[in-house]
Amino acid sequence: MISCLIVDDEAPAREELKFLIEEFEDVNVVGLAKHGLEAIELNSKLNPDLIFLDIEMPKIGGIEVADTIIKSGYNPIIVFVTAYDEFALKAFEVNAIDYLLKPIIKERLNKTINKIRTMKNNISRNEYDLSKLLTEMKEKNFNINKITLYKDGTLIPLRQDEIVYATVELKQTIIISTRGRYEYPNTLSCFEEKMNSKNFFRSHRSFLINLDFIEKIEPWFNSTFIIKMKNCEDKIPVSRGQAKEFKKIMNIT
Predict the structure, then answer these.
(1) Which of 110, 170, 176, 228 is least enclosed by beta carbons within 10 angstroms?
(2) Is the pLDDT of residue 183 over 50?
(3) pTM for this one?
(4) Domains along the chain?
């Protein structure tokens, strides 16, 4: 029996992967972690054979989690779950470390589980390859430019350059994109951390905007601004506290 830990900061993604894995009679999900610190703690407590590890998580990402686990002395097989573009996936392929691309396809998971059955008997090779991969990832500093959002029962990957802005409505984080409206199952601040890009600016405590989608900037009272975004009719405020930084970024004199 292969014991496994699932790590993802998004509840729908954790539950969907758990549902798919439960179809394998020889794989047992022993834990679910919603962030990197919990993953490190559960790895030490549960000693799983396998970890499905999301790369893009706030504060402590999957790469840092994997690095910490390797140095801890107990090294399970780690399969990264990622929204990386094709160019970055080559790093995984070269180093013989398996990965799952969001949204996860059942047929691809089948191949991964079959590979793990073989890898389980060759842990030393897995440790070597994983260390090599982490070194390469740090050296090249790959940037994630996708985020996967849950809508109508499925996971939809969006590129960062498709996101117009994010806001908060009735305590729910809403993402407005060129492909429609999505709900994000966490706070706006968490979403801002995930974007991790200079293209995004927190114009207001309730708004995170993609600077590339700004169409017009209108001066407003108290030296603030109102922004008209492309691809939508919404007008977004720049708060007084953010106005100075906004003027600097946009070279407003």
Answers:
(1) 170
(2) yes
(3) 0.61
(4) 2-140 (3.40.50.2300), 146-249 (2.40.50.1020)
